[in-house]
Design brief:
Layout lengths: L7 H13 L2 H8 L3 H15 L4 E2 L6 E2 L1 H26 L7 E7 L3 H15 L4 E7 L1 H9 L5 E5 L8 E10 L1 E5 L6 H5 L8 E3 L4 H12 L8 E3 L2 H9 L5 E3 L1 H6 L7 E5 L6 E9 L4 H18 L1 H7 L8 E2 L4
Parallel strand pairs: 3-4, 3-5, 8-9
Antiparallel strand pairs: 1-2, 5-12, 6-12, 6-13, 7-10, 7-11
InterPro entries: LysR_HTH_N, LysR_subst-bd, WH-like_DNA-bd_sf, WH_DNA-bd_sf
Organism: Shimia gijangensis
GO molecular function, one term: transcription cis-regulatory region binding
Length: about 325
Amino acid sequence: MNKPNLSLRGLEVFQLLAKSGSVQKVAFDTGLSISTVSHHLKSVEESLGVSLVDHSRRPMILTPAGAIFVRYVEDGLKLIRRGEIELTLGNLNEVRDLRLGIVDDFDSELSPELAQLLAEAMPKCVFKHHTRPSHQIIRLLYEQKLDAGVATRPISDLSNLVEYPLLRDPFVLAVPHGSKIAPEDYLAGVSGLPFLRYSQNQIIGTLIETQLRRLKISLPNRFELESNPSILGMVAEGSGWAITTPASYVRARRFHGRVELHPFPGKGFARTIALFTLEDYPKAMADMIAETLRRLITRHYPEPILRSFPWLAPDFRVLSDP
């Protein structure tokens, strides 16, 4: 009796199931029915003549044979995906799909123009655009739900990701307009205003808290917010002060007349915003997206902000690919 041949879809389903251990989750992520996912897995196992997963466990776990085979499947699928994309790079008219994540700091300023430019360069491409905080974009990349993502570089290890640096974004103090309090007094906790923290679930919040610990600065934790506009809105109302960045300030444009920026006292620090892709994503495509982003960032961020805050130069600058 002839066994069915291995199918590409079956291998993709097996790879996803190896990561999640759940037929239901694979069905949800792929849009397939549960019975179709089960059929694909069964076909792969029948083709090989071995059980790849322990069907009696919940969540499912790989059998010893499955643990060996999944490594080859992952390598093979990477090569196939790279080949599919590289075949189209000589003619961007043939690019069919791009799943791009943009950090929410850039969404309103860059995303509409970026989408227009990429649509002109790739007229047959279907764009799937996601706006998320940086930590979620990094997670979606590792889950292979994005082809490329613009995010703040985290402190954690970035193995299996390729980085294309875009912007050096230094941390500054944001205080109510007209405040006569010295920047050092805010960090010393004697300003009389509460410190408005970014959520420590976010990369920007983690970077700030790490620097404060390095400097042995301890400030009461009364307000911890995920929304950048909410933080700068409270600063504008005179309800507190914050450690933020010029790019975050740009995003809260309606508060500009009521918020002042000051250099971070003492040893300064910065975040890097970059384009990230998985290792198998073609470099030529990533370079094209990164260069488009750098042109847009230059026009929307350093150029207008440095006119108002010239002391930010040269710390606030677009980065080239090393």
